[in-house]
């Protein structure tokens, strides 16, 4: 019953097998090897973007911060949700990589609305050089609160960005979970709706530590390459990043893994709803935010469940606390059933 | 006959086996797992530094840039060799991570002399706020030109730094090769001679991509932790960095791998010297810099050797060009013999 | 009827006279001259802080950004009001000077409440290295909406900062106006209530362009000096900054000028209130925020008044728009009377 | 006999008079006032560059650092002389403003040679992303060692930059002294020979603290404006910068002042040469570098001369030490004669 995070599970066998295959003889460093080139080509094909610049980095924070640094000058600002990972969980990495840009928070929840985005950008338009220059709009799909933007919602946001001539960054740490949930192609959820730079995440979906940054305008490639090296994210033994991504792309493993995680998420939502438990996110992929009395949280954890709760477990038993359940690809249906049974027992 | 670099060979079997062992079930992210904690303890033990702060990062550039950022304010300067990796091969990473510090080059070759270091620091002492504040001294061991500082040479450099009250950073991308060559312990080649922050490299010596940063003053730990996260080098699935390092430490694998590479280096030096070829570095570990006429380089490469040459292979056959041979752990004696035979044949 | 800003009026005669006096013969550059030293001493005396480090810079943004850079690491965050000048009007200068720190906005209006400040700091305490390190609390006195914190309100805010061990920065661009309004000494409104670094503004109160940064802990002096030079704010002909400040301190000119501006502010508040006009700021020094119908704004401006209005002057005549009136030291009572008459006429 | 620096003398009367004239009534802040606009137009006319973007900043370091930040990305490098002001006297300001760019020093003295510049740029061309991207070439005219590049020498340097497609920055802190010395127009010494961004210095030539940055490609204007504000160098009371520059341009005051300073320089060179004293700089404007025995330096200073000497005045009387004489506009011929007499007496 481990639902703490999707960065805590093991990697599937094909990833280790691919690493083993790649570990043969000599290969040129820094991404010049055949495997790295081939993997980049496969991602271009997957995104139906033959001219895209594609780069592998080891962490999602690196992918986001490097992408934003290419889209936002140091005297600019990035528009994002108040709970965006780039704002809440990257310890100033976007500010660091951009050389001092701001993040301007769009009022509301995890899903930005086009109205709030438009109003926020417009408000930043009024101060000339006294305020920052308007920079990229950053969208997180799946959001940090477990919701999946619909395609219409995404289009509405990118349309606002385009109205102001601003580029769009997609934080796709859980890109796979969203694409599977919406049953769309990577192209449909990126450049076809106006995304300029897309992070195609692998780490939260079963890889040891690889994210692909897909830049649809190749004119931005050189800057990214220098910024990646300067940020110490260009691996000398690049084949070991490429090998993980190769396995991820092979036989749509990325879709398979995301599908498993999403199914567990659905099983959780249905079970909790049937049990009369309030679920916060009205859409979902592999994360569920829900309420239980503190006492029930304690009982469920005592039964062996691991997950994150907002607030201390010490306190009045009947006080409601929000919990977060995250399913990685390896969670078994039995684990979900056991969790739901524990919730029932605690109810 | 592959002597292009020590970042181009495969990793030894124990590393893959350790990754496979580590890939079992769930573990807490971001280095909070037992394996990561255990590996840090082993490094503290290896360095005889029970209070040291120890961190794993994926690249040598990250290790150097983060270490220097903790030792040098943005208005300071780092003293290093003109051919130091931090100056020549990290695309401004130290400047970036430090927030704009300078590198002040100590005149001379790859091995700084205490006299040149002292004179350079003294010269920077004269301009008050018009020049940068004096910052750390950065020493590369093994140097970028293949030389190994003797213990006396290292002590002489750290003594100069201490005379000015400056901290010392050791770029140990090839720490293992040097320690084996000098037959000293990690403690002897670091804090016991005045090194404040030491990079214990793994990538160039057989790992996929892991370096340990050992900070002997634990008061500097918090800053490093925030800087590592901000720089996007804190891995969520940290166990896969730890697993590589675990294998590296097990049964002194790090010494074994470095010993192999150094032996090939010795074999090359001896063979080239016997063949009357000029070898540049008067000491060596696993790298050899040597001169051959351009025509001979062409012939040796035609015979199947791969290595770096300074200058174009197109030109007068009799012009002398410097070549660089780097042995990784996996180079076989037969490959060296074949290379030397090719040199003889080309002579 | 010029109420657009307190950076648009002329400087008083004593400032020009002091510049003329200072313009005699040779003097050492970069602040080493006797006048610069003497002015620093006078400020130390004024603040009853014999050990304080005191520096002159030409702009308020430079004073704030340099002060914050000394108080906040690049991986930290500054707590301030959502309408703070450092957030809204300095084009990322704090982010730039600090090397990428964040500003965390304390929910509410221009006057932070201790409750909101405490809750905001506490919320930032929970994420470890995933969020920024907690940094300084920045207080703007007079606020950007014209309010003057009472001494009790200031003490309550600094007390919260101290509870978390955080330093306090006071943006005193209008320090003089506040001190005169509250009838307190510079010491009482700074270090005696826990301010660590205070900006003693001159530019908005009659100088051409000089602000003093008063750092009560001299251990922070060296860092400030290097940061000021690095930021290109160390004047070679420093005597011309010092001369302005000398005139400002002579015979309490700074109090005299602020007193004049504040009196005009009071005259405006009283007149507008009597006229039944809503005034937003419940306390005031030299700024008044008020509501008039758009048509009335148009009529008052047609009568010759100059001031800032939130929103376009084109639109329905009866829609209420907020205006801002700022009195500099040189505004005459007659100008205020004329303005109030114009408002009456427009009513 | 004050020859310590050209930032230590008084400003000429017209500058104070212009400040007094400008100090009349209200004017819009931040450079929107008529005087500021007019002064920018006059500089465009002076430079025969009707489309140029022109900005005033208070210090030469600000002018250089802002200009370089617009010309060099954070992952780039600036090519300059080892004694360039941007390298030796700006405490990492170019590194700070650019976000971490390097300065690559062109071997040689204060005057770069086209051969050395070409070789240095070519050497930086070889490392791809491992080294920085090639950035602007920065030329200092008059050099920091008192020499004045001939027009042919300048053309040779800009030609090398253009061969590599690199922009050219001219540090013209002493632009006026050079233009008068060479008897050329500002246009001839800037865009007509390939300078992209020119600093037209005023501070060292008689102003309190104003430099004009002339950007010949207006497409770079917006970036400069945001960077200037972000760096806290946009003055609210901009008219007081403009007023100084207005006086400087009126009746070619800038040429008059530079002419005076240069004449004193010539008087010094001739007198010293006649006295058999070695003068280092083979060309000159208002600075002279010369050798005297330590004892003679002591005697000349005892006679009342003030200037900078390389090395301590304590030591063997007969050891040769280099001294630097700088003439500002206000130095009188009598002061030079007195100095030369003191040298004779000390001989």
UniProtKB/TrEMBL annotation, chains A, B, C, D:
Annotated GO biological process: amino acid metabolic process
GO molecular function terms listed in the Swiss-Prot or TrEMBL record: lyase activity
Gene3D superfamilies (UniProt xref): Aspartate Aminotransferase, domain 1 (3.90.1150.10), Type I PLP-dependent aspartate aminotransferase-like (Major domain) (3.40.640.10)
Pfam family membership, one: Beta_elim_lyase
Keywords, sorted A to Z: Pyridoxal phosphate
Aromatic amino acid beta-eliminating lyase/threonine aldolase domain boundaries: 3-291
Keyword match Aminoacyl-tRNA synthetase: no
SUPFAM superfamilies: PLP-dependent transferases
Tree of life domain: Bacteria
The protein's required cofactors: pyridoxal 5'-phosphate
Family the UniProt entry places it in: Belongs to the threonine aldolase family.
Record's subunit section: Homotetramer.
Protein name in UniProt: L-threonine aldolase
Organism: Salipiger marinus
């Amino acid at each position: 019953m481990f639902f703490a995070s999707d960065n805590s599970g093991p990697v599937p066998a094909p990833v280790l097998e691919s690493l083993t295959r790649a570990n043969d003889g000599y290969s040129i460093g820094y991404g010049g090897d055949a495997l790295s080139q081939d993997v980049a080509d496969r991602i271009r094909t997957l995104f139906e973007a033959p001219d895209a610049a594609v780069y592998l980095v080891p962490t999602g924070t690196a992918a986001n911060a490097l992408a934003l640094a290419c889209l936002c000058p140091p005297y600019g600002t990035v528009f994002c949700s108040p709970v965006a990972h780039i704002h809440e969980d990257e310890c100033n990495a976007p500010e660091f990589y951009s050389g001092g840009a701001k993040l301007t928070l769009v009022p509301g929840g995890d899903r930005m609305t086009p109205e709030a985005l438009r109003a926020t950008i417009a408000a930043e338009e009024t101060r000339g050089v006294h305020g920052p220059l308007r920079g990229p709009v950053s969208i997180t799909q799946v959001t940090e609160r477990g919701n999946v933007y619909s395609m219409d919602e995404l289009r509405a946001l990118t349309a606002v960005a385009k109205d102001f001539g601003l580029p769009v960054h997609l934080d796709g740490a859980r890109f796979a979970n969203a694409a599977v949930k919406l049953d769309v192609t990577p192209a449909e959820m990126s450049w076809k709706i106006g995304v300029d730079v897309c992070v195609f995440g692998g780490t939260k979906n079963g890889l040891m530590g690889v994210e692909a940054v897909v830049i649809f305008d190749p004119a931005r490639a050189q800057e990214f390459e220098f910024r990646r090296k300067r940020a110490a994210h260009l691996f000398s033994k690049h084949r070991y990043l490429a090998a993980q991504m190769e396995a991820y792309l092979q036989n749509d493993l990325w879709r398979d893994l995301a599908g498993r995680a999403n199914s567990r998420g659905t099983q959780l939502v249905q079970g909790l709803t049937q049990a009369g438990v309030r679920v916060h996110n009205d859409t979902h992929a592999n994360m569920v935010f829900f309420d239980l009395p503190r006492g029930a949280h304690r009982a469920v954890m005592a039964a062996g469940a691991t997950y994150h709760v907002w607030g201390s477990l010490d306190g009045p038993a009947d006080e409601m606390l929000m919990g977060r359940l995250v399913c990685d690809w390896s969670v078994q249906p039995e684990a979900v059933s056991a969790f739901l049974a524990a919730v029932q027992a605690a109810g």
